[in-house]
Write a structure and sequence with these properties.
Elements lengths: L3 E5 L3 H12 L3 E6 L10 E3 L5 E3 L6 E3 L2 H8 L4 E3 L4 E5 L2 E5 L3 H8 L5 H11 L9 H26 L8 H5 L16 E5 L3 H8 L5 E5 L14 E4 L3 H4 L9 E11 L10 E3 L8 E4 H5 L6 E9 L6 E2 L3 H15 L4 E3 L11 H16 L1
Keywords: FAD, Flavoprotein, Isomerase
InterPro entries: UDP-GALP_mutase, UDP-GalPyranose_mutase_C
Organism: Dyella acidisoli
Length: 363
């Protein structure tokens, strides 16, 4: 048996790394300051018996066969393709924007070529494309930008699209066909019995011990561990010596609606221009659960609270680089995950980063 390792955080980054190290023969102790495993992917039955995602919707999608097969060791899957609508002027439209969005919004009858020509006609060419505003205006022009993106971005990030790096908007495609799926990845599915069950299976190993409601900052005697894998905010680890890295937080407003079979037509509906919340998700779409009622969640972005999204701005990246330089000198610590690497990772990307980190540690 190899020496002990400590892993800080029982979300994807920590749990995948823990399992890989345990399978390689290492004894692993994993801690989390929350009272549960699975990080932000944590799901549970609410008091009405509906399976909900406590920290907002998590939809697995990936083009990585290796990552999908890896997670398939710990769960069976339910095939699910996520669809989103955007409410503009009281009407609901497919989002991301596609040909049906154009035809319904403007009373047109475009085919694929007509939609492509429409976008070409209305776009505002930007060179170089540096910001999220540049991306959207360069692709769909000002009217669609103002209807679907501008106010949503303001709510989501508390910033103007012109203040955010191009990668934020580049995550959202624009289509000339009628494909209304939010993602087009090869693998799109939900863990059949939920994410928490998948994490339970992942951490079910004789070499893994789990301790919850433990804050790393309050942990004593960490010298007994041969190595530490840290998945929390990198600026917290270094006691904010260069200042706080900016993150965007969320407040979730969960609601159960008794005797309502279906609240909305798709899993998620965006509200770019109305209300203080950005979107509503109805979980039964995602899980396929049968229940006499339904449970929804509204998301309210906010500046304060648990860190969810690294804010993609050039000055924030520069600040992170200073922390990254400190991290590179920590020979006994590996930093991995969205918060530790200050990257806007999807779930599959976190799994990939954790598999890479584990491989390097195992040698």
């Amino acid at each position: 048996m190899h020496s002990d390792l400590l892993i800080v955080g029982a979300g994807y980054a920590g749990s995948v790394t823990a399992r890989e190290l345990a399978d390689a023969g290492h004894r692993v102790h994993i801690i989390d300051k929350r009272p549960h495993i699975a990080g932000n992917a944590y799901d549970e039955l609410d008091e009405h018996g509906v399976l909900i995602h406590r920290y907002g919707p998590h939809i697995f999608h990936s083009n990585g066969e290796r990552i999908f097969e890896y997670l398939s060791r710990f769960t069976k899957w339910r095939s699910y393709e996520h669809r989103v609508r955007g409410v503009v002027g009281g009407a609901s439209y497919p989002f991301p924007i596609n040909r049906d969005t154009l035809n319904k919004l403007y009373g047109l009858d475009l085919d694929d070529a007509g939609a492509e020509a429409y976008f070409e006609r209305v776009r505002e060419p930007r060179e170089p494309v540096l910001t999220s505003e540049d991306v959207v205006l360069n692709t769909v022009g000002r009217d669609l930008y103002e209807k679907f993106f501008l106010n949503y971005t303001r709510k989501q990030w508390g910033l103007e699209p012109s203040e955010l790096k191009a990668g934020v908007a580049a995550r959202i495609p624009v289509r000339v066909n009628t494909d209304d799926r939010y993602f087009t990845d090869r693998f799109q599915a939900m863990p059949l019995h939920g994410y928490t069950k998948m994490f339970e299976a992942m951490l079910d190993h004789p070499n893994i011990s789990v301790e919850l409601e433990i804050d790393f900052a309050e942990l004593r005697n960490i010298d007994r561990y041969q190595h530490i894998v840290y998945t929390g905010p990198i600026d917290t680890y270094f006691n904010y010596c260069y200042g706080h890295l900016p993150y965007r937080s969320l407040r979730f407003e969960h609601e159960h609606l008794p005797n309502v079979q279906q609240y909305q037509e798709t899993g998620t509906v965006n509200y770019p221009n109305d209300h203080a919340y950005t979107r509503i998700t109805e979980f039964k779409h995602l899980t396929g659960q049968t229940h006499s009622g339904t449970s929804i969640v509204r998301e309210y972005p906010q500046a304060e609270g648990d860190p969810y999204y690294p804010i993609p701005r050039t000055e924030n990246e520069s600040l992170f680089k200073r922390y990254e330089e400190l991290a590179s000198k920590e020979t006994r610590v590996t930093f991995v995950g969205r918060l530790a690497q200050y990257r806007y990772y999807n779930m599959d990307q976190v799994v990939g980063a954790a598999l890479t980190a584990a491989k390097q540690l195992i040698g």
